[in-house]
C-alpha cells in the first residue's frame, strides 16, 4: 500500500471508536480527511446518530458540514467525548509534534477539552525521538520579527511558514514559525521555554496528551495504547 492508502485505512478504522450521541473533536490534516469522509458516510447511512462535531480548523468544518455532520463551536459544548486528530511525529514515549497543517492552536484547545484523544498516523510518522519534523510555533503578528530574531539567536533555525509570497496565516490570523531542530532532547523543557516567550501563542509540542495511536501499516491498522 502507498502512503495515501495507509492514511485512508487508518482514518476509516478510527471511526469505529465513535459511538452514537458522541461529541467528537475533528482534527485537521490529510489522514483526518479520510476519517471525516467515513464519519459522514456513516452519519448519512444512519449508522451513527446524534453526532456533534467540534472542529480544529475552518477546512475541517467545511468538509464536515458538506457531509451533513452537525458542527458546534467549542464554546457551545461543555466537553468533548473523543478527539481524533493526526500527528506529524509520534515518539516512542507517545510525545508528539503537530501543526504541519497550521492548526496547532485550535488543535490544542480542542484536545484540552477532550475526555479521550486518538491520533491517527501512517507508520512513517513514528520516530524514536522528536525533532526531525520542523516544530511549528504560532506567534501573533505584532512583534513577530523580534520573536523570530530571538529564536535565531538561540540557534533554533527558524523559518517563516509561507503561503506563496506571503506569510501563512492561521485561522486566528497569526503567523507560524517553524523551528528546524533536528532532534529535541528535552521536549517538556523546550515547550515551557517557548510558551513563556512573549508573542508566542502556542507550540506544536503535544506532550502527555494522547490515549491511543492508530497506525496504518502494511499489515493493517495497529493500535498503540499510550495510557
UniProtKB/TrEMBL annotation:
User: What keywords were assigned to this record?
Assistant: Isomerase
Database matches in CDD domains: RPI_A (cd01398)
Record: residues binding substrate? 28-31, 85-88, 98-101, 125
**Origin: domain of life:** Bacteria
The chemistry this enzyme catalyses reads: aldehydo-D-ribose 5-phosphate = D-ribulose 5-phosphate
- The answer to whether keyword Transferase applies is no
Q: What is one process in the GO biological process aspect for this record? A: pentose-phosphate shunt, non-oxidative branch
SUPFAM superfamilies from the entry? D-ribose-5-phosphate isomerase (RpiA), lid domain, NagB/RpiA/CoA transferase-like
**What pathway is this protein said to act in by its record?**
Carbohydrate degradation; pentose phosphate pathway; D-ribose 5-phosphate from D-ribulose 5-phosphate (non-oxidative stage): step 1/1
Pfam families for the chain: Rib_5-P_isom_A
Q: Which GO terms describe its molecular function?
A: ribose-5-phosphate isomerase activity
List its EC numbers.
5.3.1.6
Q: Which residues participate directly in catalysis?
A: 107
Q: Mind telling me which NCBIfam families this protein's record contains?
A: PRK00702.1 (NF001924), rpiA (TIGR00021)
Family stated for the protein in its record: Belongs to the ribose 5-phosphate isomerase family.
Subunit composition?
Homodimer.
According to its UniProt entry, what is the function of this protein?
Catalyzes the reversible conversion of ribose-5-phosphate to ribulose 5-phosphate.
Q: What is this protein called?
A: Ribose-5-phosphate isomerase A
Q: Give the source species.
A: Limosilactobacillus panis DSM 6035
Q: Which lineage ranks, top first, belong to the organism behind this chain?
A: Bacteria, Bacillati, Bacillota, Bacilli, Lactobacillales
